[in-house]
Amino acid sequence: MDSVKKGTEIKRFTEGNLTSHLVKFAIPVLLSHFMMILLNTVDMIVVGQKLGEIGTSAVSIGGSVAMFLNAFIGGFSSAAQVIIAIMIGGGKQKQISKFISTVCGFIFVIAIASMIIMLPCTNLMLDLLNTPSEAYKGAYEYALICIFGIIPIYFYHIISAIFRGLGDSKHPLIFISVACGLNIVLDIIFILGLNMGVGGAAIATVIAQFVSVVLSFIVLARKREAFDLTIKFKDFFNWDKQALLRFVKLAIPMAINNSAIQIAGMVINSMTNDFGVTVSAFAGIRANIATTVDLILGSVATAGAMIIGQNIAARRLKRVNGTLIRVGIISLSVSVVLIILFLAFPVSIFGIFTKETSVLELVYPYLPILIFSLVNAGIRPVTRALIDGSGNRRINLIVALLDAIVARIGLAIIFGVLLKWGYMGYWFGVTLAELVPIIIGVIFYFTSVRKIAK
Q1: Residues 49, 53: Cα–Cα separation, whole Å
Q2: Predicted local distance difference test score (pLDDT) of residue 360
Q3: pLDDT band at 179 (very low <50, low <70, confident <90, very high)
Q4: In CA terms, which of 25, 51, 147, 399 is 20 to 30 Å from 445?
């Protein structure tokens, strides 16, 4: 009976209907991302309604530090889930248990190190972001509390990645739903009830993610037989060097990619904040909407990457191609719907985050840039699924260096400073840079992937 139960919940995407696999995996990821959107935006909405544009600016700037942490660990979690998928596709399932215990132990060390490094740098980061004086205190409180909450933030990402790598996208949805629901309740209590302001919003987020992480560990422990895992407590401290080396080689380029994009965004926000609290508040809302769109379409890319990872490992190019086509159809369809919504109700959508007239006056001048960005967003999941699913560390590093560091900051300076377009030039430069990973992904497919899968 035990042998029947082992591994029964591991999903294999090398056989069966691709569309069914993609949709069934992507829908829970999409819903998880919606929950993540709520988790990320509820603080801004509640604080914005309570404290106005100063509160919105504080959460935006302080939250950019939290977003950097999420981006950094997001690279590690993406690497973990792709490697697990490749192990399954390549028939190396027995290596997964040691890999998971090694990764979890390593992530704990990384979390502690990140906290030690970032705590004394909080003021420096806010100064580099040119935080408006009116919003400085709130931004500092938000950033500092999020840094203290690094461990639950990191472990939420890595445990969810493990489940997804095993083909289970439903449990991460449960974990983030618990966190989101609890965060909303705590925001109402801390901000509206106890008047704890911006700091209360950050505390609510950290507590909610801590509860979610505890739940995820309990479920993983109970599901270990269904996933054919043989992990003991001591394994978290007894790392497998080969597994760690494989993980680090892929995780570091992915983390650099995510972090560099976030750093580029922080640099551009710093330049934008020079234009005052109104533009700073709009920049925060703009960034939140961009993150929302990326999370929605990222669900399709994540599902595609899992299927592609297994099928590249199994050397099934036809299924890789079929997955890419399906990812493109879905993501472009979503992009078209979003474009229609923003063209029809631009002020209403931005008005969810603020009622300040001065902030909303910037919506229409920004709208053409937003539409251009949404077009890019519809194409990007195809190349993102391909690059992530391939598990190729070199291509991830190339994307990180060219997209984030060279293109985003470089083009923002060209249009914002040299051509004197101001903050609109910064945002247009970032949008234009989004074409870089798309071009790299196309070149990578024709020069490498077709050969790997044959």
Answers
A1: 9
A2: 86
A3: confident
A4: 25
Q: Say how many residues make up the chain.
A: 454
CA distance 228 to 9: 9
Instruction: Yes or no: say if 288 and 353 are a contact pair by the CB < 8 Å rule.
Output: yes
The one-letter code for the residue type at 120 is P
Q: Is it the case that residue 40 has pLDDT exceeding 80? A: no
How far apart CA 404 and CA 406 sit, in angstroms, is: 6
* 297 pLDDT above the threshold of 80: yes
Question: Which pLDDT tens digit goes with each residue over 61-80?
Answer: 777 777 777 778 888 888 88
134: which 2 tokens?
């009116």
**DSSP states of 191-231:** IIIS--HHHHHHHHHHHHHHHHHHHHHHHHHHTTTTTT---
For residue 299, how far is the Cα from the chain centroid?
10
27 or 405, higher pLDDT = 27
Model confidence, pTM: 0.78
95 Cβ contact partners less than 8 Å away, ≥ 6 residues apart? 87, 243
The domain ranges of the chain are 2-452
For the chain, first and last CA: distance in Å? Answer: 39
| Gap between the Cα atoms of 382 and 136, Å rounded | 40
Query: What is the three-state SS of 101-170?
Result: HHHHHHHHHHHHHHHHHHHHHHHHHHHHCCCCHHHHHHHHHHHHHHHHCHHHHHHHHHHHHHHHHCCCCH
Q: In Å, how far are 144, 224, 417 from 163, measured between CA atoms?
A: 30, 11, 45
What one-letter code names the amino acid at 337?
Answer: V
